[in-house]
């Protein structure tokens, strides 16, 4: 939703855009401004000919102007836009109009078109905005397009009229009539006047009456009043000088000034015009256009006033804040006096009944006044409190409380605390009656929030201190207070030469509860956990909530053995089921802890050590982890590995190895699996079991996966171009869960493997990754199958697939996990699982591929069970591309 200030700025931009009327830049400026204002990718204005052809006048696309083109309207959305109503296609516009090549070239997803009409109602052009994503336009956007279309139509009509004028005298008269009609329907006043001090009007459009209240015939020739007499006295000389300067510079003039309406009120005008010269260079007349910009100007005045006040008081606090605020406010609003007053409740103590008010700061005739208390009843402040905002334009003379200043007009705004309760008033007073109050009321309304906040802070400083150091949800000390306690208790421990322990606790799966059940349930859960922890921790030390679901406990003078007992108590106290809103939650906590001086020597190091321990605790099944130096070294290695892996991906220093996949019946090669290998210059070979999980954790897996896909495609092409070297079957490539979360994955893979047929690629995803979002997985797998890719479910049997989803997956194969294959000869259960997976795959018309086959007996048993294919050391180890080709692809 746009604010009033936003709207004013938008229309100002639009006004500047159409301000180039008559210049070659008009259409170019218009399409550029519309693209910026509406946030669309493409805007075009076109002239529509009688042959059902469109000739573009300006085309803005993706941040720049394109060359103009001519195209047929048949079969385009522009054809449907040539009506009285706007034509909108919010999405899928290319599929609706497949013959429109321009839509495809621009990449447009949505389209909105408006026809442009001449003053006689004839169709002359069109205005279209397009976006490379679905489009939703509100009322403000539609109004902007309507105005832009009117202005563009007016400009195009004017141009066509000028062209017709040059053809013949008869056409010239008709063009003049059309231009006159057009001017009389514009939202403003077009004029032609003499360059004299009266701005004597020779020609005035019908819009003059709306703008000034006077009919055109009353202004022409100064019959009833001169136009200059309507200009505000403060603006007359300035306006004349600006116009004369523009004429001397042979350029157009653009001016803003106040104009008195016939009803006596002043309105803000924006005028643009230029001098018309004869052949001798003498001024014949001035021509231009005037529009009402009062709303925009008032918004700007309010903004400037607020900025002026805010910049004056921003460094002040307490009494200095209020004194500077009211002094600047009185000056900006041109008032004679003003005050900010604090309300006091009645003696009965009812918080909603106020008996008195005391000025916190008062300014009269530019001078500060002492504080003064006054009865609220019967005063203007009482009306402000009751109505929240009140204005007196002209009332009986009233003495300002505590002064002898007689006032006849005032404006007031109530100041509320955070609970919406009245705590004060802010008012300005005038000796003379007010003619308007919109400006002052807007300024007071904007500044009242800051004044109320400072008044509440002054009124209850202790409460503000509590907010600064206490967690509002649990009532425990917050992170700021905790860090102060840590520094204080560490100093005491250092001076007293005793120990200090820090425990960091994290509620496991709290984010999941928060996301599924909402923040209200999450906050209740936090409060309950805090209460449970406090029952144990109060006798040990200081408990605090650091953030989200993380708590901290500082314990002084305790041995590591005592900490172990405390940790177990904390775990047990959290574990009982928690009943909230008819739901039952089973909670657990991860706890990491460190000790001073055993583990660290500084307070900051203690917090860092406990954080490292908590990180490891979250990854452990028992959720408990004391700090050790090994953890710091491991964390350092992981950080180094992240940096080196990122560089290896970027610099293409990784390598692909290929492991053969064979048919268990014939022993023939049926394909291969691409496996990523990394040799670091310093560390040597880094295990995939170490760097691939790290890539997933640190956000590198997408880049790594893209490299594998590109490198696999490059290698397939290389083998294909070698005599007898093409890989039979498909090359299997692993896809990570993060890659699979992309709904556009199929198209992305096709781009990365350009030049390789989809029939040469099989994509593998682990069973657990499929089940993260099974509904999306079903949709993506079907898209992949339609594109020609084969799909395998890797490590099958280790996850928790739903058979109903497995039936819906468009998978070609199930890969039996190595953990079952390795023990199936000795372990009856594993053998049964393998047999079940094979039977299930046959029922679902999928093939099975066994992983990790290392012996002849395993291969024979798998063949007997009906397994189709296998891979493992028995058939061949993963090999670099050249060695693999030499051993397996040479004919």
TrEMBL record:
Q: Which InterPro entries match?
A: Biofilm_reg_signaling, EAL_dom, EAL_sf, GAF, GAF-like_dom_sf, GGDEF_dom, Nucleotide_cyclase, PAC
Instruction: Name all PAS domain ranges.
Output: 175-250
User: Is the Coiled coil keyword given for this protein?
Assistant: yes
Q: Where does the record place a coiled coil?
A: 158-185
User: In this protein, which residues make up the domain named PAC?
Assistant: 253-305
Q: Name one Pfam family in it.
A: EAL
Q: Does the keyword Coiled coil apply?
A: yes
**All copies of domain EAL, residue ranges:** 638-891
Query: What CDD domains does this protein map onto?
Result: EAL, GGDEF, PAS
- According to the entry, every stretch annotated as the GGDEF domain falls at 498-629
Q: Which UniProt keywords apply?
A: Coiled coil
Record-linked PANTHER family: BIOFILM ARCHITECTURE MAINTENANCE PROTEIN MBAA, DIGUANYLATE CYCLASE DGCP
- This chain belongs to the protein called EAL domain-containing protein
Source organism of the structure: Vreelandella sedimenti
């Amino acid at each position: 939703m746009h604010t009033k200030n936003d709207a004013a700025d938008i229309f100002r931009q639009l006004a500047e855009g159409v301000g180039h009327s008559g210049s070659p830049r008009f259409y170019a400026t218009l399409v550029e401004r519309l693209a910026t204002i509406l946030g669309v990718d493409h805007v075009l204005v076109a002239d529509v000919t009688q042959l059902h052809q469109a000739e573009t006048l300006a085309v803005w696309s993706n941040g720049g102007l394109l060359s103009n083109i001519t195209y047929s309207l048949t079969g385009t959305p522009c054809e449907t836009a040539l009506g009285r109503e706007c034509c909108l296609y919010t999405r899928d516009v290319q599929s609706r109009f497949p013959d429109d090549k321009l839509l495809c070239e621009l990449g447009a997803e949505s389209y909105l078109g408006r026809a442009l009409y001449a003053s006689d109602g004839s169709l002359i052009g069109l205005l279209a905005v397009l976006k490379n994503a679905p489009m939703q336009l509100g009322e403000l956007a539609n109004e902007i397009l309507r105005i832009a279309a009117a202005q563009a139509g007016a400009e195009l009509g004017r141009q066509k009229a000028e062209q017709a004028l040059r053809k013949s005298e008869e056409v010239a008269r008709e063009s003049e009539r059309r231009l006159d009609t057009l001017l009389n329907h514009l939202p403003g006043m077009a004029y032609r006047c003499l360059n004299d001090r009266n701005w004597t009007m020779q020609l005035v459009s019908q819009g003059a009456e709306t703008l000034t209240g006077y009919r055109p015939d009353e202004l022409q020739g100064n019959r009833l009043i001169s136009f200059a007499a309507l200009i505000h006295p403060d603006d007359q000389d300035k306006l004349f000088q600006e116009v004369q300067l523009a004429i001397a510079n042979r350029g157009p003039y653009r001016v803003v000034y106040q104009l008195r309406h016939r009803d006596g009120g002043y309105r803000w005008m924006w005028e643009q015009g230029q001098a018309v010269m004869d052949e001798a260079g003498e001024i014949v007349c001035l021509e231009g256009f005037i529009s009402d910009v009062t709303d925009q100007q008032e918004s700007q005045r309010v903004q400037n006033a607020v900025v002026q006040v805010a910049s004056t008081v921003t460094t002040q606090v307490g009494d200095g804040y209020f004194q500077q605020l009211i002094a600047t406010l009185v000056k900006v609003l041109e008032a004679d006096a003003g005050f900010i007053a604090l309300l006091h409740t009645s003696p009965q103590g009812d918080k909603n009944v106020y008996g008195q008010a005391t000025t916190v700061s008062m300014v009269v005739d530019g001078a500060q006044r002492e504080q003064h208390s006054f009865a609220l009843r019967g005063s203007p402040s009482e009306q402000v409190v009751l109505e929240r905002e009140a204005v007196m334009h002209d009332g009986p003379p009233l003495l300002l409380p505590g002064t002898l200043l007689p006032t006849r007009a005032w404006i007031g705004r109530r100041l509320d605390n955070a609970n919406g309760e009245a705590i004060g008033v802010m008012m300005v007073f005038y000796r003379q009656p007010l003619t308007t109050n919109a400006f002052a009321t807007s300024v007071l309304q904007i500044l009242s929030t800051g004044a109320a906040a400072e008044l509440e802070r002054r009124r209850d400083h202790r409460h503000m201190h509590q907010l600064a150091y206490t967690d509002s949800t649990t009532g425990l000390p917050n992170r700021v207070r905790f860090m102060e306690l840590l520094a204080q208790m560490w100093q005491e421990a250092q001076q007293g030469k005793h120990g200090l322990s820090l425990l960091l606790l994290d509620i496991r799966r709290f984010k999941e509860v928060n996301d599924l059940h909402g923040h209200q349930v999450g906050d209740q859960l936090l409060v309950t956990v805090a209460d449970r922890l406090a029952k144990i921790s109060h006798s040990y030390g200081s408990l605090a909530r650091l953030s989200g679901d993380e708590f901290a406990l500082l314990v002084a003078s305790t041995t590591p053995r005592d900490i172990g007992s405390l940790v177990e108590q904390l775990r047990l106290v959290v574990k009982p089921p928690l009943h909230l809103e008819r739901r039952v939650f089973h909670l657990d906590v991860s706890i990491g802890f460190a000790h001073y001086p055993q583990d660290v020597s500084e307070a900051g190091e203690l917090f860092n050590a406990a954080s490292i321990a908590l990180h490891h605790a979250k990854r452990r099944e028992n959720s408990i982890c004391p700090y050790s130096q090994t953890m710091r070294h491991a964390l350092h290695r992981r950080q180094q590995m992240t940096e080196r892996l990122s560089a290896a991906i970027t610099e293409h220093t990784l390598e692909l190895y290929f492991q053969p996949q064979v048919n268990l019946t014939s022993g023939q090669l049926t394909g291969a699996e691409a496996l990523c290998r990394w040799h670091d210059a310093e560390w040597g070979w880094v295990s995939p079991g170490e760097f691939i999980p790290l890539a997933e954790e640190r956000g590198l897996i997408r880049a790594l996966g893209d490299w594998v896909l590109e490198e696999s495609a490059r290698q397939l092409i290389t083998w294909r171009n070698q005599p007898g070297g093409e890989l039979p079957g498909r090359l299997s490539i692993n896809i990570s869960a993060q890659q699979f979360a992309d709904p556009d994955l199929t198209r992305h893979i096709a781009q990365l493997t350009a030049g390789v047929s989809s029939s040469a690629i099989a994509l593998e995803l682990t069973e657990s990754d499929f089940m993260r979002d099974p509904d999306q997985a079903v949709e993506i797998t079907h898209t992949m199958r339609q594109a020609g890719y084969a799909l395998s479910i890797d490590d099958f049997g280790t996850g928790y697939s739903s058979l109903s989803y497995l039936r819906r997956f468009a998978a070609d194969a199930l890969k039996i996990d190595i953990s079952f294959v390795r023990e199936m000869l000795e372990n009856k259960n594993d053998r049964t699982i393998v047999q079940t997976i094979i039977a299930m795959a046959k029922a679902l018309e999928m093939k099975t591929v066994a992983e990790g086959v290392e012996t002849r007996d395993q291969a024979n048993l798998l063949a007997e069970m009906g397994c189709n294919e296998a891979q493992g050391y028995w058939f061949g180890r993963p090999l670099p591309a050249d060695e693999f080709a030499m051993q397996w692809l040479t004919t």
